[in-house]
Design a protein that fits this description.
Layout lengths: L2 H4 L4 H11 L8 E4 L9 H16 L3 E6 L9 H14 L7 E3 L4 H13 L3 E4 L3 H8 L16 H13 L8 E4 L14 E5 L13 E3 L1 H11 L4 E5 L6 H11 L5 E5 L2 E3 L6 H9 L14 H7 L3 H11 L6 E3 L1 H15 L2 E2 L1 E2 L2 E6 L8 E6 L9 E6 L2 E5 L19 E4 L4 E9 L6 E9 L16 E2 L2 E2 L4 E8 L26 E9 L11 E4 L3 E5 L10 E6 L4 H11 L1
Parallel strand pairs: 1-2, 2-3, 8-9, 10-11, 12-25, 14-20, 18-21, 23-27
Antiparallel strand pairs: 4-5, 5-6, 6-7, 13-24, 14-17, 15-16, 17-22, 18-19, 19-20, 23-24, 25-26, 26-27
The structure holds adenosine-5'-triphosphate and magnesium ion.
Adenosine-5'-triphosphate (ATP) binds next to helix 3, strand 8 and helix 10.
Length: 565
């Protein structure tokens, strides 16, 4: 099933089509992706990026990249840089439209003054705790702040003095004057500005008052002339507040549209939690190949195409749900199957000696690079007397249903010959199998007239003298539980971390074709999965691969069953 055929339309696309049909916004479509630079982007953000940039491209519009950097205590330029490279990697371009909410601090300040002068905002001396007490609950209305009735002149003066730094952190706030009895808690005189004597990664020490996200976000969209302000469902209850600000200020009014955020099984998608994983050393960093960050997926070997295809397929809805991570892996396999060259590698080597093969002889056998794409050509694979096969492809006493190598049995070596195991060499102390003695049948060379003699298994292998040593890292889900956040009271979500999410194999052997494999290049190791060269730890002297994904595709089965049913 190709992606194009299954691409469903969705309600946001329909809204934009209708707006264009009636000539709204002068037929402009202008969206934005507005990350807060307080962490690395994760796959949930990819959904939002694909949606915002995708819709703009589809309707001939524009999409801005805007950093919503209103909280200096958590933000950092490292995050700004990582976000830019991740958006680019995913395949999107914001042109020269790289914006920062902090660029609008002066304008936002003037908007605040405008509201004060219209008696729509006031300086409040209640502490954060008191504000919370006064706010009331879902069932009880709030109480007016005693400072709510301050005169315009006093408010203008106090707000100006807040700005120049006369007051310590937390002593005063600027609040919108709306309705302390509103059934929507967001409308109960929300804070617009707080005092924070903290350096900002862009504005330095110029400001010691910072706008709240709720005050900055909608106005920033308005300043940029955004037409469709697409955000996740948790902002639905904030929309009346954003509308209120825009109406009071009488400025351009983008239309906010909410959609359900992406959740994925066996992982967490919250920057706060991802930061905790990094800080507590559960992973090696934001780009650890087990992380659901775009940096992690990239290092793991994911293609941007596979992530974009996944984001198309999951669709856009109004109801929260959890997507099976098997679906993401399915999109990845589909893409890698088309483009990754096949090679042979042995993860846990078992030495075999072909006793009837001449000592010094080496044959260069033809191997197909990708059966899915003949255009990718063939390569030569050296065959010689001493080879390695996978330990698990041999059983001294084969159980029922095991058709691979065992004493007296024949198997085919891929692209080579049929071999037969004639003797097993064991370590005299431990009894462990250290070597197999085999014979080969010279008449069974792949591609020859008799090459189709039937045997039950085809094994991958490498030539011992020609193979290159490599380290291979095998990954499993970072969390054992499907929903790591679903824990009993008193139990921490980190208790769901999978202790076996990483297995490192240090004495693997790969075929010589991979000698010059470049950083991040991707391959299918026959029968073992898709792998890529690690961009951080691999070097000229040490070849390190990450397993991107195994070959077995549970999602393909699910999809098939769904089609039938
Ligand atoms: P987190 O919950 O991970 O901290 P956030 O919403 O605080 O995420 P922002 O930097 O504010 O992170 O997000 C930028 C944009 O990405 C926002 O428009 C937000 O709605 C969207 N976004 C964040 N997480 C998801 C998700 N899981 N699915 C879809 N969109 C998301
Ligand atoms: Mg947010």
């Amino acid at each position: 099933m190709s992606t194009a055929e299954t691409t469903p339309t969705h309600f946001i696309r329909n809204i934009i089509s209708e707006d264009l049909a009636v000539g709204k916004n002068n037929r402009r479509v202008h969206t934005r992706f507005p990350p807060e630079p307080n962490g690395y982007l994760h796959i949930g953000h990819a959904k939002s990026i694909c949606l915002n940039f995708g819709l703009a491209a589809e309707f001939g519009g524009l999409c801005n990249l805007r950093f919503d950097d209103t909280n200096p205590s958590k933000e950092d330029v490292e995050y700004v840089e990582s976000i830019k490279s991740d958006v680019r990697w995913l395949g999107f371009d914001w042109g020269d439209r790289e914006y920062y909410a902090s660029d609008y601090f002066e304008q936002l300040y003037q908007y605040a003054v405008q509201l004060i002068k219209a008696s729509k905002a006031y300086v409040c001396d209640l502490s954060a705790d008191q504000i919370r007490e006064y706010r009331g609950t879902l069932t009880e209305p709030g109480k007016d702040s005693p400072y709510r009735t301050r005169s315009v002149a006093e408010n203008v003066d106090l707000f100006q003095r807040m700005r120049v730094g006369e007051f310590p952190d937390g002593t005063r706030t600027l609040r919108a004057k709306i309705d302390m009895a509103s059934p929507n808690l967001n409308m109960r005189d929300p804070v617009m500005y707080r005092i924070l004597h903290a350096a900002h990664h862009r504005t330095g020490d110029r400001w010691c008052i910072y706008p709240t996200y709720d005050f900055a976000h909608g106005q920033s969209d308005s300043i940029e002339g955004i037409t469709h302000s697409i955000c996740t469902l948790e902002f639905e209850d904030h929309r009346p507040l954003y509308d209120w600000f825009l109406e009071q200020l009488n400025i351009h009014h983008p239309q906010q549209i909410e959609f359900a955020r992406l959740n994925l099984t066996h992982t967490v998608l919250s920057k706060r939690k991802l930061l905790q994983l990094v800080q507590q050393g559960h992973v090696t960093g934001w780009d650890d190949p087990r992380m659901p960050t775009l940096a992690g997926f990239r290092r793991r070997g994911y293609t941007p195409e596979s992530i974009r295809s996944f984001c198309e397929r999951i669709g856009v809805a109004k109801r929260n749900s959890i997507v099976d991570i098997a679906m993401l892996e399915h999109c990845l396999r589909e893409d890698l199957n088309r483009r990754a060259p096949r090679v042979m590698a042995v993860l846990r080597p078992l030495r075999i000696v072909i006793t009837n093969y001449p000592e010094e002889q080496v044959e260069e056998l033809d191997a197909v690079n990708n059966p899915e794409d003949p255009g990718m050509g063939t390569r030569k694979v050296p065959f010689s007397r001493v080879l390695y096969i996978e330990q698990e492809d041999f059983r001294e006493e084969p159980p029922k249903g095991f058709f691979r190598l065992s004493p007296g049995r024949e198997v085919r070596l891929r692209y080579a010959y049929i071999i037969k195991c004639v003797d097993v060499v064991e370590d005299p102390k431990t009894g462990a199998v250290t070597e197999l003695r085999c014979t080969y049948d010279p008449d069974t060379k792949s591609g020859s007239a008799q090459s189709n003699r039937k045997v039950k298994a085809i094994l991958h292998w490498v030539s011992a003298a020609h193979a290159i040593e490599a380290e291979v890292r095998l990954y499993d889900h970072l969390f054992t539980a499907e929903n790591p956040d679903d824990v009993e009271e008193g139990v921490d979500w980190t208790s769901n971390i999978n202790p076996k999410s990483l297995e490192t194999l240090t004495s693997c052997r790969v075929e010589p074709f991979l000698a010059n494999a470049s950083s991040r290049s991707r391959y299918q190791f026959e029968r073992l999965g898709y792998f890529c060269v690690d961009s951080v730890d691999s070097s000229d002297r040490r070849l390190v691969f990450n397993r991107t994904v195994t070959l077995r595709d549970p999602w393909a089965k699910i999809e098939k069953a769904q089609k039938k049913g």
